[in-house]
């Protein structure tokens, strides 16, 4: 698929230039995959639940060509180049490239040594899926180079496999699905059980609304113990209930362990909020989803316990300045929040968020307006 997003094209030219200067040849192609914002449906993906992400116009881009050995170059940091005859032993940023190639081989789509130059403007550590963007750009590049026609839903599972088993981050499939499957101008309602999906129109401007993304500048890490602990809590709660996943838990289920009860309550109520949000958007009642966004944050803050001082400050300040709704987005423990605001109030809300962070001695947030962008594609 080719897309004419001019921003992705500009990033791709930077990747191509890096490829030429590093390897001395032209790349065989350029591929881009976006970061994402999850409108609602947090931590539900690995519980076989419902999610509603949309792609952001920030991209990871790879320039790539077949080669005699694996070689990974990145414009991150000092512009390191790593490589070798096998895919063994890579860590840091290179693990996301090597892990995706490994997962393709493991999944029956053989790929061989390839040179990559990576360039990305997806904020790292902002909870906007910078890692999934890299994985998906690499995956579609390798699929094209080695002649594999892979269904996008299956491709998301393969990219997730690389992150889970090679990188060691126990993430669900939301991020990769969003990067590969989202469409411009739409939010994607997806059932994580069977990966069935529906593209729901998401035209905020028509409703005189704006979605602010607030990168708190407090990095988060998916591979750390807290994310894995939440997933383990959900698996244990499901085991005690005798159901495959918490998506299958009875609405008013109770367990003896109060911590597990809180985790379960978040998953049950969050799935309900996703369904309600989808229904409202389909009816054109976009402004009414604000209360659901705020309820989601409250649940993540108190029941799932994955928020942070920075995220709570952003959400509270946005609501105090008149936002219709606000919530953390992404895995939590730092990262980003979103706020649904009336277009005329966007600057006021942004100022309030930045001021609240300053008064609390927190990092200065980066605030930008989100639009629903196109998913992963070949640039040229």
Automatic annotation (TrEMBL):
Identify the residues that the record assigns to the Galactokinase N-terminal domain, covering every copy.
Answer: 18-66
Gene Ontology molecular functions: ATP binding; galactokinase activity; metal ion binding
Q: Supply the EC number(s).
A: 2.7.1.6
Gene Ontology cellular-component terms for this entry are:
cytosol
Q: What class of enzyme is it?
A: transferase
Every copy of the GHMP kinase N-terminal domain together lies at 96-181
* GO BP terms, alphabetized: galactose metabolic process
**Could you tell me the keywords of this UniProt record?**
ATP-binding, Carbohydrate metabolism, Cytoplasm, Galactose metabolism, Kinase, Magnesium, Metal-binding, Nucleotide-binding, Transferase
According to its UniProt record, what is one Pfam family this protein matches? GHMP_kinases_N
Can you give the residue ranges of the GHMP kinase C-terminal domain? 279-353
Kindly indicate where the leader peptide sits in this chain. Answer: none
Q: Which family does it belong to?
A: Belongs to the GHMP kinase family. GalK subfamily.
Q: What is this protein called?
A: Galactokinase
Lineage, broadest ranks: Bacteria, Bacillati, Actinomycetota, Actinomycetes, Glycomycetales
